[in-house]
Write a structure and sequence with these properties.
This protein is of the alpha+beta class. 42% of the residues lie in helices and 29% in strands. The strands form 14 sheets. A five-stranded mixed β-sheet has the order 38-39-40-41-45, with no helix packed on it. Strand 34 and strand 35 form a beta hairpin. Helix 2 (669-963) packs parallel to helix 5 (1071-1151). It is extended and about 150 Å long.
Length: 1198
């Protein structure tokens, strides 16, 4: 049965800067970096971290590498038994392989690298204790955990090796660089060193393989050396920085490469078009100006849009490499922190807030930082001129105590800053703590004989000075009720003090209750656990004796052997577990979880270790709800753990009753005034902009109105002109329709005659076809009879044949089954023969492959020998080429003279060509001008045609709008009356709703009054509880004098005078007041119920009325649609009448010459009658139009 509590990594703030290649990208939004003894994968899109924990025997990370597909992560760790390299899968976050070489005693790998195909891995060891395996290069098949080859790569002087890598095109070739070392080796029956060397051996800092099959090496003096893919030295780049240690890390990208140096500068190089320059320096960026930070590692995202940078100050930055963000920027772009700014150096102080999700830290970098462990961000950072040794967080989250080298600062934590409100003259305060209630705080004063001074928080008034320690006090702790304080220090003493807040002598020496002294030990931390049953406190201390000691009533009541030095301990508030931090020098700071209560005795208590820091832990804290554990260490990292409890089952009721975290902030009056001033200024600017926009809108409206008037006049004239043209075209159309009707009439007569002739011929043909049908029917009956007889005969023959075929099939089936059995036996025999043949073929193939491999290796060796011979010949040819170059230089001088003469002649020719081009240009310009004019003429003609079409469309729309006049305005008037009636009903409903709202407001005010009364009563109850608690405390103090009657009597008398100043008054409950209160409460409850029922009833009525109004509106809309259809019908009828009148006129004109006088008079009378009817219809249409125009605005308003 292990501890009831366990830890899970939640988040870590910090970076381990001394790891080789300590920043890599897994994806565009995922970056990998080391923190403590772990590798961290930060997922920026999800704001989560994946923790890859180190080996349990590891002493810290030394280098990292990611393969080309971003799938695997290699992490090398220091281990005294032998260096370890662990391979992690970045997708599943699981450990794949752990590589270690038992033959080597080298404790660490200095560099690790994957091959391009991710099948192989090389590791470079450092110095070994036995000096037998110094600077060994190991070539691994990592998936099989097997070493293929190893070689010692350093020189006789045993110089430092810095980096190693694979050739990206040939995994059998590796490169190693260091101080005066640059070697290329090939794997062939072991490592073979290739015979290549640079022009000058010097201290090489970094190297990389570029995308154009070349290798770049950075030297200590700032030179950048270029090699080809085979390791042959080419040149020193002329654009090299030339500054010492300006190129300590380098990475390639598609356009060139990027280098970083100890001067904190990042230089970006791109491929140059100049052959001599090769690469040009396009940008120089400064990281952390004026801080002395050095660039430790660089990384590029897969899309090459982001650059990750780690510095020697343990900071991790990110920079956008987009062209518009970087190359075209005149000023140096800003480096954004990937998570937030971290501490540089050791963290000395740590404390957690009770009411807010905040943690505060301080360190040797002279900064104090506030972290939000819910949002995983740094909320605030304040820099000081002095180093901060300790820090404490008030439970409310509004106040801080910071112990610095010259004073003790009391600060308010504002929204955007930390503001000092009191300085206390305590120098180099190494420990300070607020009480659990926040009303007191204790600070260690080293100058005052290592005394502990207790102050009131809100008045800064000293209460007591606790003395007794003879050496530095390293830890203090308050009991749960803040009545006692325990302390321990380097003198091996543990003291328990009684703190009296109410005293007549402020600053007097406190009374020591219990003490325990172990002079041979030096304690570093103490915690106290209060036993509610016995009212005694149990203390637990740790120190350099590697024991976890239990102290009860001033005596050691048990010890637990830890096996290592524990620096900090903290007890869970639930009492289910105890956490300790390892503080062994030069060892990782692991976190240990003990089962609580401790069983006592050596090796009798169980614990569990969790990986965390790479250096000894300095502080350890736990949240008030036991959900989170916080640890800080000398490596500058802050770890946040989730505390998992096996039996933790939080019910819904407990969650609802739990006190929520506070979200209040503290601001100053000046801050609010500034914000209010800014708000007023913004409002003034908004008013000015609004006025300006309104003026511009009015100006535009007036301008647009003028343009609209001009356009209306223009288009009105054009419409009139187009209307006249339309009338002419309509007359022509009517004439054409009349002519078409006459033609149609003649065609109809001709078609009728043709139909009659066709009908007669069709009847004759039908008689002939009927006779043929009767004859064919008789022939069909005869054929059917003969077919029936033939069918019966064929069926009998078919049945006979079926029987014969069934007998034949049964015999054939039996023979086939026998053949199948025979074939299956033959198949089994053939398969066995085939398997044996395949096995023999595989053996022969393997043997042939081995022979071919040996043959190819022999040929490859011969080709390499030829290559060496050809290189010697190339040197001879190179010298011959230099002589030829000298001769060519002489020829070039003569050629230059000829070219000079040619240049002068070409200048004259160019001048003449310019004149010719100028004349041709003028001709082309004039031709283009003529073409433009013709194009404009064509465009104007085209626009004219479009305008004519537009006029025709407008005229058609005008006619449609005029035809939509509604002749039934009476129904519209009736609808208006109905709408007015509905409006009156709605006004009644509004009045009723207003009255109901007034009633509801009155009830709300009464309810609020009752709530205020309840709050006041609760406040009185709280005051009474406070008095009772204070009385219990004073009574407890009186009990201390139970053996001294005189002091007991004085204490009881003082207690009586304090709490009963006016005597005891007997109070009786007035029954009439209680009865009247109950009666009023019942009346109010009944009134509220009645009003609720009335409100529900009125809501139903309102809903029914709204439904009825909606239905009536739907009926009105239907009637309006019917009226519109009737308007369309009348419009069509009117057009037909006009066509009929026009036809009559044309008929009268055509028959006027041949008609009789009586017929002419009759027609004239009919024409006059039609004209009268048309005039009457026109007059009615005009009246309806006028009525419609007057009624339309009223309908729109409704």
């Amino acid at each position: 049965h292990g501890p009831a509590l366990s830890l899970v990594h939640r988040h870590v703030f910090g970076l381990k800067p001394d790891v080789k290649n300590n920043v890599h990208y897994a994806e565009e939004t995922q970056i990998i970096y080391p923190a403590g003894t772990n590798a961290v994968l930060w997922q920026a899109d999800q704001k989560q971290q994946k923790i890859f924990q180190g080996h349990e025997d590891g002493q810290g990370l030394t280098c990292m590498a990611v393969n080309s597909t971003k799938r695997y992560l290699a992490v090398a760790e220091k281990c005294y038994e032998g260096a370890i390299c662990t391979i992690f899968d970045l997708v599943t976050a699981k450990k794949r392989k752990t590589l270690s070489w038992p033959e080597s005693d080298a404790p660490e790998f200095l560099c690790v690298a994957f091959s391009a195909d991710s099948k192989y891995l090389i590791t470079q060891t450092g110095r070994s204790p036995s000096a037998k395996h110094d600077w060994s290069l190991l070539y691994w098949v990592w998936d099989k955990q097997r070493v293929m080859a190893s070689i010692k790569v350093s020189n006789p002087q045993n110089s430092l090796i810095r980096e190693c890598s694979f050739n990206p095109t040939d995994s059998s070739i590796v490169c190693v660089i260091g101080d005066g070392i640059l070697k290329f080796m090939q794997l062939k029956d072991g490592f073979k060193t290739l015979p290549v060397a640079p022009a000058k051996l010097q201290s090489f800092m970094c190297h990389t393989w570029l995308h154009d099959d070349k290798m770049l090496v950075g030297a200590d003096n700032g030179d950048l050396l270029l090699f080809d893919n085979a390791g042959e030295f080419q040149t020193v780049l002329p654009t090299s920085p030339g500054e010492p240690r300006a190129a300590t890390c380098v990475i390639p990208f598609s356009k060139g490469f990027i280098i970083g140096g100890d001067d904190g500068r990042i230089r970006i190089y791109e491929k140059s078009d100049e052959p001599k320059e090769i690469y040009r320096q396009s940008k120089v960026l400064q990281v952390e100006p004026n801080s002395g930070a050095a660039v430790r590692s660089l990384a590029l995202s897969p899309s090459e849009e982001l650059l990750g940078v780690s510095t020697s100050t343990a900071q991790l930055y990110q920079l956008s490499l987009l062209g518009q963000d970087l190359m075209k920027a005149e000023e140096s772009p800003a480096f954004e922190p990937v998570l937030s700014h971290f501490h540089t150096g050791a963290i000395l102080g740590l404390d957690v807030c009770i009411r807010k999700p905040l943690v505060v830290t301080c360190g040797v970098d002279k900064s104090a930082r506030v972290w939000n462990y819910f949002e995983k961000t740094c909320v605030m950072c304040r820099w000081f001129n002095e180093e901060a040794y300790s820090i404490a967080f008030h439970p409310s989250g509004f106040h801080l105590i910071i112990g610095q080298s010259d004073k003790l600062r009391l600060m308010n934590l504002l929204m955007e800053d930390m503001k000092t409100y009191k300085d206390i003259a305590i120098k180099q305060c190494r420990e300070c703590r607020f009480s659990n209630g926040g009303q007191y705080f204790a600070a260690v004063n080293t100058n005052a004989t290592n005394a502990i001074q207790v102050y009131k928080t809100y008045t800064c008034e000293p209460i007591e000075t606790l003395r007794g320690h003879t050496n530095k006090v390293r830890s203090v702790a308050w009991t749960a009720d803040d009545s006692m304080l325990v302390s321990t220090g380097a003198d091996g003493a543990v003291y328990e003090y009684y703190v009296q807040a109410e005293t007549a002598n402020p600053g007097r020496d406190g009374r020591r209750v219990h003490d325990f002294v172990q002079k041979t030990s030096s304690f570093s931390c103490v915690i106290v656990h209060s036993d509610q049953s016995s009212n005694f406190n149990t203390m637990y201390v740790v120190g350099n004796d590697q024991l976890l000691r239990k102290v009860y009533k001033g005596e050691s009541s048990g010890t637990v052997k830890a096996g290592t030095t524990l620096g900090q301990i903290v007890l869970a508030n639930s009492g289910k577990g105890l956490f300790a931090a390892v503080a062994e020098p030069d060892a990782p700071g692991r976190i240990r979880c003990y089962k609580f209560p401790l069983n006592g005795g050596d090796n009798s208590c169980e614990w569990t270790d969790f990986s965390a820091h790479a250096a000894p832990a300095t502080r350890l804290r736990i949240s008030a709800d036991d959900f989170y554990l916080f640890s800080a260490a000398e490596d500058g990292t802050l770890f946040v753990f989730d505390v998992k409890r096996k039996d933790r089952n939080v019910s819904k009721r407990d969650k609802e009753s739990a006190l929520p975290l506070a979200d209040e902030i503290l601001v100053t009056r000046t801050f609010l005034d500034d914000k209010q001033g800014q708000l007023n200024e913004f409002e003034r600017q908004v008013d000015e902009l609004s006025n300006q926009q309104e003026f511009q809108l009015r100006h535009r409206d007036s301008f647009h109105k003028e343009e609209m008037v001009a356009m209306d006049e223009k288009y009105t004239a054009e419409i009139d002109e187009e209307r006249q043209k339309y009338e002419v075209l309509r007359e022509e159309k009517n004439d054409a329709e009349m002519e078409a009707e006459e033609n149609i009439k003649s065609l109809l007569e001709h078609h009728a005659k043709q139909d009659q002739d066709l009908e007669q011929s069709f009847q004759e043909k039908m008689m002939e076809e009927v006779n043929k049908y009767q004859k064919l029917a008789a022939e069909r009956d005869e054929i059917h009879r003969r077919w029936g007889e033939q069918h019966q005969r064929i069926i009998a023959e078919h049945q006979k044949k079926v029987n014969e075929m069934q007998a034949q099939f049964a015999a054939a089936q039996k023979a086939d089954m026998e053949a199948i059995d025979r074939v299956l036996n033959e198949k089994a025999l053939a398969e066995s023969v085939h398997a044996e043949t395949m096995r023999q073929l595989e053996l022969d193939t393997d043997r042939e492959i081995e022979e071919l491999k040996e043959d190819k290796e022999t040929r490859l060796k011969a080709e390499r020998d030829d290559k060496v011979r050809l290189r010697g010949q190339a040197g001879i040819h190179k010298r011959n080429g230099e002589e030829l170059n000298k001769q060519m230089q002489q020829k070039d001088d003569e050629l230059m003279r000829y070219k000079e003469e040619e240049r002068k002649k070409e200048e004259k020719i160019a001048q003449l060509n310019k004149e010719r081009d100028h004349n041709a240009k003028e001709i082309r310009q004039r031709d283009s001008t003529i073409g433009d004019k013709e194009g404009k003429i064509y465009e104007l003609k085209k626009q004219n045609q479009e305008l004519e079409k537009f006029k025709f469309v407008l005229d058609y729309k005008i006619r449609e709008l005029k035809a939509q006049i509604d002749p039934k305005n009476d129904k519209i008037a009736e609808m208006k009356k109905e709408i007015q009636a509905m409006d009156s009903d709605l006004e009644d409903y509004h009045r009723k709703n207003t009255q109901l709202q007034v009633n509801i407001q009155q009830l709300t005010n009464k309810h609020k009054t009752l709530q205020d009364d309840i709050v006041s009563q609760r406040k009185k109850m709280t005051d009474c509880q406070t008095v009772i608690k204070r009385f219990k405390t004073d009574l407890h103090e009186c009990v201390q004098f139970i053996q001294e009657p005189r002091l007991l009597k004085e204490s009881v008398t003082a207690l009586y005078k304090k709490y009963v100043p006016n005597g005891v008054k007997k109070q009786e409950l007035d029954t009439d007041i209680q009865r009247e209160y109950n009666r009023q409460r019942d009346y109010l409850e009944k009134s509220v119920d009645n009003l609720k029922r009335k409100l529900l009833k009125d809501s139903d009525v309102h809903r029914q009325d709204n439904t009825r109004v909606l239905q009536e509106n739907v009926q009105l809309i239907i009637e309006i649609n019917n009226l519109r259809r009737e308007i369309d019908y009348l419009k069509r009828e009117r057009q037909q009448q006009r066509l009929h009148v026009s036809k009559l006129k044309s008929n009268n004109t055509s028959k006027s010459s041949s008609g009789k006088p009586d017929d002419i008079s009759t027609l004239n009378r009919e024409i006059e009658t039609n004209k009268t009817t048309i005039d009457d219809l026109r007059r009615r249409v005009e009246e309806q139009t006028a009525l419609r125009s007057t009624a339309a605005p009223a309908v729109e308003v409704q």
